[in-house]
Structure to design on (576 residues):
């Protein structure tokens, strides 16, 4: 799964905008495409979610065997966790802020 | 004397003065468990032989004129993450069933027995304490004595059910993010989550080292205080335990609320409440004459940081089991633990730094007030198996959101007494939150509310009937 090409949402958006703006006829667009000798494109694949790829990669790296049936729940849980994490991740704290647990030697 | 609904303080008094015996009380408790546990599913082990031997030793001590402890003859039971000699410490899991039996009791079990209490069994719980429902995948759900189609709350579900159902007057549970306070709310019991580091966690199965607390459930504030006092004290087996001296709360419990400054938590703690929880909070506030509102700063972020630390530390604890025995977990626990193993370390480090910042902000509030009132749960007990509930008009997942009002408090280890408001048909609790090490303040307020008839453990009607299906 990690080898899958990931289409970023930003790139996809740009493409959609340029198509919408073009206003060119279909024939012109086809002519331009053929003149640039682009390879014929395969039917569009569903855009893969970076978090899917992350879950797969992390599971392999951590040697956690995940049944494919579990993946949606794992991903949903991680998604919730990261969303909650984002609520304090950029909370301004000074560089010298100490973490809560204090080890006593 | 009918003891199945008696308070622990009453039982100890009647055993001490000879109106009944510890053996009679223990036999009554065992009979009640035998009668009702098929329905309530609160117990995973009943220790009849051990309990009767202990009870007989108390009766013999009385006959010999030896002094009895403050909990003489009081039956109690413990969440099955406490070590009990001779039992494997399940912590609600299937995996731990292959562990060898514990060779000794947890420190808190030893202390309650030293005070004369009688251990009668081990209690059902959510797997590895990662749970707010009381539904155990392997042992079946513990059932709410007020309505057996409803959940007890968790993860100390059996503890809440056993006390609310009149099977025992005192039970012990653990509270990492709300696992004493949520079942206290759903089952209508009193629950005490002491200050972090106040009671020994030695010889219990952990969950999240940063937040794990142990504490009692009871049907009165005085019983909470009696159990709490009996369990205080140094323990070299728990490196997290504070070295503060024992500070008994029972002698202070009758002092009333005069002179105490109490405020109602606003903002975060007032969003999303179901009408019953709103009513309960309003009743308690009115009874105490509380008008002042106080903002607990950044409570939402505190809850989020607690969530991240929980998932991460929980995953770290279980990583090897997830690698080798993932299929033996409750799927709802397994999937969250696997996700927890994938949390970036930077987030966890930030959460721990935020925790210290937040602690300082909240401690500053306690220079102005002695206690803060907040809801314990957003709603009354949901149905067993329910997956979502309405939070402020929005349908949200139940498991991650039932503890939204408890998590920001245990995050910084503050002591809390959950007091049950006996609404019909289902109770719901309010949290009385005090400054660190001031359990006595929260217990005083709880006792005053109880004396005023505002909070109480309502007696449920549980029909023995036929046994509920176990998984």
């Amino acid at each position: 799964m990690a080898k899958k090409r990931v289409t970023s949402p930003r790139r996809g958006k740009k493409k959609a905008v340029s198509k919408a703006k073009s206003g060119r006829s279909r024939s012109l667009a086809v002519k331009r495409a053929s003149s640039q000798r682009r390879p014929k494109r395969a039917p569009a694949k569903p855009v893969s979610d970076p978090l899917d790829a992350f879950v797969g990669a992390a599971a392999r790296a951590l040697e956690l065997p995940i049944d494919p049936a579990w993946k949606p729940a794992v991903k949903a849980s991680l998604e919730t966790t990261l969303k909650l994490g984002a609520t304090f991740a950029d909370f301004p704290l000074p560089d010298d802020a100490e973490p809560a647990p204090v080890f006593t030697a | 004397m009918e003891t199945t609904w008696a308070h622990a303080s009453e039982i100890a008094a009647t055993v001490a003065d000879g109106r009944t015996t510890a053996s009679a009380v223990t036999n009554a408790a065992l009979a009640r468990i035998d009668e009702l546990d098929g329905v309530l599913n609160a117990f995973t082990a009943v220790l009849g032989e051990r309990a009767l031997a202990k009870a007989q030793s108390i009766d013999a001590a009385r006959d010999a004129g030896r002094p009895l402890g403050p909990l003489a003859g009081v039956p109690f039971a413990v969440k099955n993450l406490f070590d009990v000699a001779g039992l494997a410490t399940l912590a609600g899991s299937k995996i731990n069933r292959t562990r060898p039996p514990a060779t000794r009791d947890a420190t808190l079990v030893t202390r309650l027995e030293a005070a004369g209490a009688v251990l009668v069994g081990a209690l059902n719980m959510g797997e590895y304490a990662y749970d707010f429902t009381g539904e155990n995948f392997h042992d079946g759900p513990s059932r709410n004595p007020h309505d057996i189609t409803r959940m007890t709350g968790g993860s100390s579900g059996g503890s809440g059910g056993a006390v609310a159902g009149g099977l025992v007057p005192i039970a012990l549970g653990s509270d990492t993010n709300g696992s004493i306070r949520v079942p206290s709310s759903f089952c209508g019991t009193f629950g005490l989550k002491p200050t972090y580091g106040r009671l020994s966690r030695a010889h219990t199965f952990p969950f999240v080292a940063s937040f794990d607390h142990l504490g009692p459930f009871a049907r009165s504030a005085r019983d909470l205080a009696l159990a709490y006092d009996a369990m205080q004290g140094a323990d070299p087996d728990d490196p997290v335990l504070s070295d503060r001296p024992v500070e008994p709360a029972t002698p202070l419990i009758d002092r009333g609320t005069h002179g105490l400054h109490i405020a109602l938590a606003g903002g975060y703690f007032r969003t999303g409440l179901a009408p019953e929880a709103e009513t309960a909070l309003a009743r308690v506030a009115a009874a105490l004459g509380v008008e002042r509102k106080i903002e607990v700063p950044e409570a939402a972020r505190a809850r989020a940081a607690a969530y991240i630390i929980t998932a991460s530390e929980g995953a770290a604890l279980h990583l090897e089991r997830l690698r080798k025995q993932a299929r033996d977990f409750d799927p709802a626990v397994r999937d969250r633990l696997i996700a927890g193993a994938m949390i970036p370390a930077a987030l966890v480090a930030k959460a721990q730094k935020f925790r210290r910042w937040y602690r300082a902000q909240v401690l500053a509030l306690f220079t102005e007030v002695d206690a803060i009132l907040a809801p314990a749960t957003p709603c009354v007990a949901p149905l067993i198996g329910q997956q979502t509930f309405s939070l402020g008009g929005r349908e949200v997942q139940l498991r991650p959101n039932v503890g939204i009002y408890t998590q920001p408090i245990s995050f910084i280890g503050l002591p809390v007494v959950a007091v049950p408001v006996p609404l019909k048909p289902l109770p719901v609790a309010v949290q009385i939150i005090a400054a660190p090490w001031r359990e006595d303040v929260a217990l005083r307020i709880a006792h005053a509310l109880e004396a005023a008839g505002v909070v109480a453990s309502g007696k449920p009607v549980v029909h023995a009937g036929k046994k509920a299906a176990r998984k």
